[in-house]
Design goal:
Blueprint lengths: L14 H18 L4 E3 L16 E3 L25 H5 L43
Antiparallel strand pairs: 1-2
Length: 131
């Protein structure tokens, strides 16, 4: 190492140290702030016989791919609704769930409830339990 004329405390932080620290510490902190399950907004009303609830995406189930696999290229980091038609065109979930890379909604054995997870009913509130 070359001696410096500046005292050690007076040196400026090098940009790559700051970037490395932000990636190592900031990335997991941001990921921990993400919701595990995200309900996809309904774009148009579901027809008779279709599941009434919107599809649910689980970050936890897809965590082996890393955030940058989908954000911001496939999904913007905001709530966004889409349809099965969009998926069949290879957009959004359909970019991976095409029957080759991952299962397709049209694959044998895949049911609507695989993605369209029913909402849990809210338990009735007992007035005696209120403060």
């Amino acid at each position: 190492m070359r001696p410096s004329s500046e005292p050690r405390t007076a040196r400026r932080l090098r940009p790559w140290y700051v970037l490395a620290f932000a990636v190592i510490i900031g990335g997991p902190a941001l990921a921990l702030g993400m919701p595990d399950k995200v309900r996809i907004p309904i774009v148009r009303p579901h027809g008779a016989g279709d599941p009434p609830d919107a599809a649910v995406f689980s970050h936890w189930d897809h965590d082996s791919y890393g955030c940058v696999s989908c954000h911001p290229s496939i999904f913007p980091q905001r709530k966004l609704g889409f349809t099965h038609d969009d998926m069949e065109r290879g957009r959004y979930c359909g970019s991976c769930h095409d029957g080759q890379l991952a299962f397709s909604p049209k694959d044998k054995g895949v049911e609507c409830e695989t993605c369209h997870v029913p909402s849990k009913p809210r338990p009735e509130i007992d007035e005696d339990d209120l403060w």
